Amino acid sequence: MTARSTSAHIDGEAVANGHKGSSNGTDTGKLKDENGRKVELGKKVTLLRGISMIVGTIIGAGIFISPKGILKHSGSVGMSLLVWIACGLLSLFGALSYAELGTCIQKSGGHYTYIMEAFGPQMAFIRLWADLIAIRPAAMAVISLAFGQHILEPLFMPCNIPPLAVKLVTAVGITSAMYLNSMSVTWTARIQIFLTASKLLAIAIIIVPGMYQLFKGETRHFENAFELSKVQLSGMPLAFYSGMYAYAGWFYLNFVTEEVDNPARTVPLAICISMAIVTSCYVLTNVAYYTVMSAEELLASPAVAVTFAERLLGNFSIVVPVFVALSCYGSMNGSLFALSRMFYVASREGQLPEVLSMIHVRRHTPLAAVLIMYPMTMLQLFVGDIYSLLNFMSFLRWLFIGVVVLGLIYLRYTKPDLPRPFKVPLLFPVVFCITCFFMVFLSLYSDPINTGIGFAISLTGIPAYYIFIYFNHRPKWLQRTLDSFNRTLQIILEVVPADQ
Predict the structure, then answer these.
(1) How far apart are CA 182 and CA 365, in angstroms?
(2) What is the pLDDT of residues 56-115, one digit of tens each?
(3) Integer Cα distance of 388 and 450 in angstroms
(4) Eight-class DSSP state of 256
């Protein structure tokens, strides 16, 4: 990892077999492709594509497989539904806070960019470091494993699936998602719309029969829904923790702000519509589950959606794992699309190698930024203890999201004249910020060893910052080696500096 190199620029001819800096023979200083278009990331994220990115990334495998964490800790059917609604409302507060940040700081990069603007480069680098070396590769590996498990399930029923087969299919899934994101922004967005529609169809397959059962009078599992004998206040924070995790993903549109068409309008509108869709889907899906399963049966089921489908849909239940796999792939695709832009922006800020902020000369995709997670993700997939790593890092997610929203409050006072096309009531970020820090405190209290290890991993970003970024005087031989490596990657990947 190096700061921005000063000698890594090479012309379009060296990169892409005859592509010159100007298509008309005049040296304008602007890089263009063979069609005369500027080599840049275009504004291809429309309102529909923004909604599909948020919804398609939030709704993963969890709502289909095991929504029992909330029920277990809330203690009753009624309280669990209230927690789902409350978590949706709290997530909306956070999402609206990010909408304000996305409209007043119209840069891609999400958490990283906002922490950089509010608290400076060192804090932003610590977040980036934790994301790059552990959080994102592990999270990608986990959702990809869920994809591999469920895409194979119909083929192996009722036998167990060999773990190696799951990992091999998972590797193919990760590779295909990386390839798609590398080749075309437009097709990535179109496929995300299709995958989002698929998972909404899957949810409809659960909700519609469930509502039919409800209207038929199947309400026995809702009797004494607010029975308080099993409700323990000590479990409610854990129920909220599970709920907030299920809603996580509303921030991904902020990672691609520079590619959003009319962000001042599109970002807040996409966030509000998406959160309304997700909250409605989550609550109605859980209501549908309770029309055919008691609380005890739901807690005992290893895959709630499959159990539901077997009871109401018979042999048609075999399609549920396929829909779950498509849902997981949608989360993989949306996450890759968004996260690559964070690495792209970090490179542009000089905190990652310069090649990561370059654009493919014909595809107009941040090819290097897409591929950077591939080696770490594959390593985590085959040799890493992924679930332990996620336990280490789960509290860091909410710590840094809380820091971002705290940054919004801080910017309100330090930069009151900053243009704010969309402005939320101050109560929203305050309530959300308190919730985030409370969940962080809960993690430290309930699991001090794992959270402590995660915190220590993130703190390694401090010496890394000073070694790679702050102290920029390297031996000349090392700098020449790094520059040569950077130029070689440019030629191999056919990428050039973006036309800013």
Answers:
(1) 6
(2) 888 877 787 667 788 888 888 888 899 999 999 999 999 999 999 998 888 888 899 999
(3) 8
(4) G
